[in-house]
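Saturday, quiet lab. Running sequence design on the structure tokens for the scaffold JK sent over.
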């Protein structure tokens, strides 16, 4: 039981140390586009401790619901919208399987306004029921 508890804590600390603003800011991804509130909404990057799926992180320190719109890079049309459930932690985590044959643009919206965007490989979400971040996906 001790080993299980230790490995769970170790895995968690590999991803991020805390949800404090300064700690999450250290994980801010440099290659992203900002629209507004760039100090409070941004993509982050941590070491992925899992080998069977990819992880996408973004932080929102604004007290409101968030959405992520997935845009086709060739047509700029919206392929899917991820709607996130409110959560206490400012760090949102999406697990997915990557399709590296094409790229998509992920745009984070808070209060209906675009806040930041970043390019990722095309993604197929993998829901993690036990994780803090919960969301629904609407495909277009």
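Result came back. Writing it out in full:
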């Amino acid at each position: 039981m001790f080993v299980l508890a230790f490995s769970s804590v170790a895995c968690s600390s590999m991803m991020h140390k805390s949800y404090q603003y300064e700690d999450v800011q250290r994980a801010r991804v440099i290659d992203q586009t900002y629209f507004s509130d760039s100090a409070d909404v941004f993509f982050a990057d941590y070491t992925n401790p899992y080998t069977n799926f990819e992880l996408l992180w973004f932080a929102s320190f604004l007290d409101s619901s968030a959405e992520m719109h997935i845009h086709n890079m060739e047509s700029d049309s919206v392929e899917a919208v991820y709607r996130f459930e409110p959560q206490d932690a400012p760090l949102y985590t999406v697990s997915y399987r990557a399709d590296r044959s094409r790229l998509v643009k992920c745009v984070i919206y808070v209060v209906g306004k675009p806040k930041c965007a970043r390019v990722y490989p095309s993604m197929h979400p993998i829901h993690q029921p036990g994780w803090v971040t919960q969301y629904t996906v609407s495909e277009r």
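Notes for JK: The two ends are 45 Å apart (CA to CA). DSSP finds two helices and eight strands in the chain. Ask whether to fix the surface positions before the next round.
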